[in-house]
From TrEMBL:
Pfam families, sorted: HTH_5 (PF01022)
SUPFAM superfamilies per UniProt: Winged helix' DNA-binding domain (SSF46785)
Organism annotation: Kribbella lupini
Residue stretches making up the HTH arsR-type domain: 3-98
InterPro entries in the record: ArsR-like_HTH (IPR011991), HTH_ArsR_DNA-bd_dom (IPR001845), HTH_Metal-responsive_Reg (IPR052543), WH-like_DNA-bd_sf (IPR036388), WH_DNA-bd_sf (IPR036390)
Top-level taxon: Bacteria
Protein name: Metalloregulator ArsR/SmtB family transcription factor
Signal peptide: none
């Protein structure tokens, strides 16, 4: 029995789901890998509670989000990493909106200071972390800098280079942090080109494992702005202590 023939992908239909600014904010609120109930999503995305269900229905219909019932609650999350990839790609193409209020300025500053990207650290904190790992000789074969003349070094995109590798010293110290061996064995290391800092931050299994561990240790916490991260006093002390030679 032969499978039915299929035509071209219905790009316009899926693209329409991204066309509404409020739906994009809903997706962005889920872009750090969390599963959230509709009420929390509405709060974080700045969408009226009376309309968030309609936006979620459209996103579910286009298979951009999935829902899981737990007890009396329904929790929504992105359907796959591809959805966040589309958001990051659109961020590269879209013009930067002018900041017209103190609230918008505060939000922009929060995202630039520290945020999650593909479930790893980005913004100034993510870039500074990679620089510290390079300075301390934990990571070798790269300088953490963006090369605007390199075709594969594109903003808001996974880096395509193969330069970054963990050193033996880095493997030893990161294992002492509690980073799983599976994350330490990935080579070369993956990275992203940070769109606010115009430099590299860690990505891939190691970047995700470090972020998860920092949450577990209480070194970072989630901010009120979706995807924003706060470095706690414990985190400042822990990073200062761990990066000593």
């Amino acid at each position: 029995m032969t499978s039915p023939a299929t035509g071209d992908p219905e790009l316009a239909r899926v693209a329409a789901a991204f066309a509404d600014p409020k739906r994009v904010r809903v997706l962005m609120a889920l872009a750090d890998g969390r599963s959230l109930p509709a009420g929390r999503l509405a709060e974080e995305a700045g969408v009226a509670a009376s309309t968030v269900s309609n936006h979620l229905s459209i996103l579910l219909d286009q298979q951009l989000v999935v829902v899981r019932r737990q007890g009396r609650h329904r929790y929504y999350r992105l359907a796959s990493d591809d959805v966040e990839g589309v958001l990051e790609a659109l961020a590269r193409l879209a013009p930067q909106a002018p900041i017209s209020s103190l609230r918008e300025h505060t939000r922009a500053q929060a995202l630039r200071t520290a945020r999650t990207c593909y479930q790893h650290l980005a913004g100034r904190l993510g870039v500074d972390l990679l620089q510290q790992l390079i300075v301390r000789d934990w990571v070798a074969r790269g300088n953490g800098l963006h090369d605007p003349d390199d075709a594969v070094d594109r903003f808001s995109a996974p880096g395509q280079g193969t330069q970054y590798h963990l050193t033996d010293l880095g493997t030893k110290h990161l294992a002492a942090w509690g980073i799983p061996r599976s994350a330490l064995s990935a080579a070369p290391l993956r990275y992203c080109v940070d769109w606010t800092e115009q430099a590299h931050h860690l990505a891939g299994p190691l970047g995700k494992a470090i972020t998860t561990r920092f949450f577990d240790l209480g070194w970072i916490t989630r901010g009120r702005v979706p995807r924003s991260i706060h470095l706690t006093p414990e985190g400042e002390a822990g990073l200062a202590n761990c990066t000593q030679r």
